[in-house]
Design a protein that fits this description.
single chain, 30 strands, ten-stranded parallel β-sheet, about 475 residues, 16-stranded mixed β-sheet, about 30% strand, alpha/beta, globular
């Protein structure tokens, strides 16, 4: 009997240890709209060793805590394709410039033999053969109740992105890279959309790095998705292959969908030239975004592109060397506080000011309409503790911005982040000297400078137009 009792006690202890281990693999808890997201919860952690095993674990119907302790290389695992594509006018011009950079050709949409229905291929496009790796075109499917987390800087998806079709998903501390960067439509980093009209709910993307993609770094479209937070992540647009022919990736974020709610918090979005992010653009759709404490650096085109159906509150963001902080589009709804009190009516608290240094002007449109669309998520916006705008650095021991285990991730003891080694080289300089004083839009309110659990991040920073289709720049007839 004693032996049986000891066995039962041991089994209970081991179960508790497994639950504790699973819980400790994820650092912090989800802030913003994704509050309450648990992913795979207490499922026993699994460590896939092959690309096939990883794909199976991510897409099955069971709760999973999946840990990546190695790089998974998908390139050449699914073959390659050579077919007729498009060389848009901007790439023809880029090749003629011979300025040390290259442009992007485009993969044509199925059946578009006339080159009239493919985004990224304009009326002056020429037919050329394009070759691409097949793996990047078809992302890994992430079903419901999944946690995907990397160990240190080992968790790399080389040559394939992710599509989140399920709900209650956590993706933390991984790097997605090398998705046919020479081709528009070569591959998206992270896509979030449901099967049919079933929209995902509860998705937390944290301490993730995305680089060298052919198309968007992040896409939410079709069904849309609610309860989504992207936090503490590094979106690296350094490239030798860009639609803007200047080493800056054009296709950043495309936020659409029947109904989408997104918190964009504490991210480093740099060396881009457009869509950083693009929000809205389709009649009959609503995309609500709270963008706070992000660092936008070295953007040669535009950051925010808020169009029809887009409702955005932007506060506490830092813009450095950004040519056009937002496009001039009166059809969008963009709340940009000029004084701390400008948000009081909409969210019940003061806002933090956005700061611009060596950058253009940030202009709001239809600002009174944003508050009405924030109704469903007002408490989450109000309770989130936004800090004063500042610059920050890439982490060294993990991906993204700020060390895992810092206040931004829910730990008690802060660490000082440092800049990680570059993974993608560009002929441009990473950090030009900045001599002008920053322009704060309105007086800075210091009343919201405290840190909330896994909410705000105050790391130390490193410094680091819509492309005109009439002048041969990038254009789109398909916005998906």
């Amino acid at each position: 009997m004693v032996r049986g009792l000891l066995g039962a006690v041991l089994a209970i202890v081991l179960t508790q240890l497994e639950l504790a281990t699973a819980a400790s693999i994820v650092s912090g808890t989800a802030p913003g709209f994704a509050t309450g997201t648990t992913g795979g919860g207490g499922a026993k952690p699994v460590y896939p060793t092959t690309v096939k095993e990883l794909a199976t674990l991510l897409s099955d119907s069971k709760p999973q805590v999946i840990v990546l302790n190695k790089e998974f290389t998908f390139i050449k695992t699914e073959g390659s394709t050579t077919e007729s594509g498009c060389r848009p006018t901007n790439n023809q011009q880029c090749l003629a410039k011979n300025n040390g950079f290259k442009g992007q050709d485009a993969i044509l949409m199925d059946g578009d033999t006339a080159m009239q229905q493919t985004g990224g291929c304009d009326s002056g496009g020429k037919s050329v053969d394009v070759t691409y790796d097949n793996a990047a075109k078809v992302p890994l499917t992430v079903a419901s109740d999944k946690t995907l987390v990397g160990e240190g800087i080992k968790g790399v998806l080389n040559g394939k992105g992710l599509i989140v079709t399920g709900s209650n998903v956590i993706i933390q501390n991984i790097h997605i890279t090398n998705l046919n960067p020479h081709l528009v439509w070569g591959g998206d980093g992270i896509t979030v959309r449901g099967d049919g009209n079933a929209a995902p709910k509860g998705v937390w993307i944290d301490h993730v790095k995305v680089s060298s993609v052919g198309r968007q770094m992040v896409v939410i479209n079709f069904s849309g998705a609610t309860g989504v937070t992207i936090s503490n992540s590094d979106f690296d647009g350094n490239t030798k292959l860009s639609a803007s022919c200047d080493g800056h990736h054009y296709w950043g974020f495309l936020i659409l969908g029947k109904k989408t709610e997104l918190s964009l918090l504490n991210n480093y979005i740099h060396h881009t030239s457009g869509r950083s992010p693009k929000i809205g653009g389709h009649n009959g759709e609503i995309s609500v975004v709270h963008a706070a404490n992000n660092y936008f650096f070295e953007n040669s085109g535009h950051t925010f592109d808020v169009a029809t159906g887009g409702y955005v509150l932007a506060e506490g963001n830092y813009f450095a060397s950004v040519k056009t902080p937002n496009l001039d589009d009166p059809t969008g709804n963009f709340l940009v506080p000029k004084t701390a009190g400008d948000c009081k009516a909409a969210i019940g608290r003061n806002c933090q000011m956005n700061v611009l240094k060596d950058s253009g002007t940030l202009t709001g449109y239809s600002q009174d309409k944003v508050g009405a669309q924030l109704t469903d998520v007002k408490k989450l916006v109000t309770d989130y503790k936004v800090t004063a705008a500042s610059q920050f650095a890439e982490a060294k021991g993990n991906f993204g911005v700020g060390e895992l285990g810092s206040p931004s991730s829910g730990a008690k003891t802060p660490t000082t982040p440092t800049k990680a080694p570059e993974t993608t080289k560009s002929p441009t300089t990473m950090a030009p000297k900045e001599t002008k004083a920053p322009n704060t839009q309105g007086s800075v309110d210091t009343g919201a400078s405290t840190t909330q659990g896994s909410g705000s991040n105050r790391p130390t920073y490193v410094s680091p137009a819509r492309l005109d289709v009439t002048k041969g720049q990038a254009t789109e007839r398909s916005t998906i």
